[in-house]
Amino acid sequence: MSRVFTKDTQLCMSLSGRPSNIGTRFHNYLYDELDLNFVYKAFTTTDLPAAVAGIRALGIRGSGVSMPFKEACIEHVDVMHDSASAIDSVNTIVNEDGVLHAYNTDYQAVADLVREAGLDPSWSVAVTGSGGMAKAVVAALRDTGFTTGTVVARNERTGPALAEKYGYGWSATADDVSADVLVNVTPVGMAGGPDSDALPFATEQIAAARAVVDVVAVPSETPLIVAARAAGKPVITGAQVVALQAAEQFALYTGVRLRTEQIQRASEFSRR
User: What amino acid positions are annotated as catalytic residues?
Assistant: First the structure.
């Protein structure tokens, strides 16, 4: 990048348990292309209250929020917008003159991708996970018409609660679950994790499905996506989800609404 940073350069950031370069490269690529006086940096933290307080105290323009902070940060923000309050999950904080506004752009990204993929709402869905991202995914599926579903989660408190809120069933394991659309919203398959080579669903379940969704962003070709492609199933990848939600964040931070080709170029650059 050839930009020169000044005292007026606006900082945007992200907070994640496992920071990657994807968001950093996505946002900075577009700041450079559009000649915006912004810079983006990824962080992790062991002191979330202090990190969020720093956004306010230092005048940081905004922050993406990833696992495991999407729910824990709620008590530290000032205004919960509908996209976040409806599902009690935050993935974006915007600093408006010291007032921290919370949003969730994951929800809109998933809803848009499901519609674009032409998935039939009459199909059944199975969603693994019950954390902040799972809340966004289940809400997006339910709101796009998927009324028959199962939340697969080992947590006997959050799993049944999420399922009940949206009229879905609950199962502690995926062993006996069958569905037309399989959705992974856990770290299974994530690069660098203990289950990076694992599948969240059995090969038989994948073969019987009509479509597969994996929100894991790194790698974009997770074991689940690879298996689904091999079985000839249509897929929605974490790379697609993260690009669309990042574009929404970009608009919240800068006021600039990106075109489709700009999103595609930035997404491709972010994964080089």
Answer: 70
